[in-house]
Amino acid sequence: MPNSNLTQRFFGSHRRSVVSIFLLSIITASLLSHSFDQMKPRPIQDLYLKIDRLDLNSQQRVALRAVRNLFVEEKSLGELDTSESEFLLAVAGILTDDQFREFSGNAKNDRQKLRYELRQIRAEMVLHGEGDSLTRR
């Protein structure tokens, strides 16, 4: 009997205790569901961590964070269904050939080489003051 008194003190009436326990179980299920969603693999984040372990200079690290943040933001807004190949293409513009080979185990393809060369040209133009009219993509 003391157990039911404790329940009544905590929840109030019997009907109120049933509703409270029901709502508590729904909240618990929601929290568990959210926790399990966080355990899903995140390929972009895993690739970023793998690249971040490379010997990068400070400009490369800043550019890498910017690319990762862009992909994470677009994915969270639901604007883009990002794939690993799109992320690798963006990263290819940041990493040198040797760094890319060390990271992926493969050499850059033509499209990835072009992306890197374009980034280098933009950097040179900015260095010489000609980059004011360039749009970044």
N-to-C SSE string, H for helix and E for strand: HHHHHHH
Overall pLDDT score: 76
Q: What's the β-strand tally? A: 0
Number of H- or I-type helical stretches: 7
Distance between the termini: 71 Å
Low-confidence segments, ≥5 residues, pLDDT <50? none
Percent range for β-strand residues: under 5%
Shape: rod-shaped
| Tally of individual domains | 2
**Major sheet description:** none
Share of helix among residues?
over 70%
Q: What structural class should be given to the helix and strand makeup?
A: mainly alpha
Radius of gyration: 26 Å
What are the defining features of this structure?
7 helices; rod-shaped; mainly alpha; 137 residues
Molecular structure report:
The chain is an all-alpha fold. It folds into two domains: about 1-40; about 45-135, no CATH class. Helices cover about 70% and strands about 0% of the residues. The chain has seven helices and no strands. Helix 1 (about 1-10) crosses helix 2 (about 15-40) and helix 5 (about 85-90) crosses helix 7 (about 110-125). The chain starts with a helix and ends in a 10-residue tail after the last helix. The mean pLDDT is about 75.
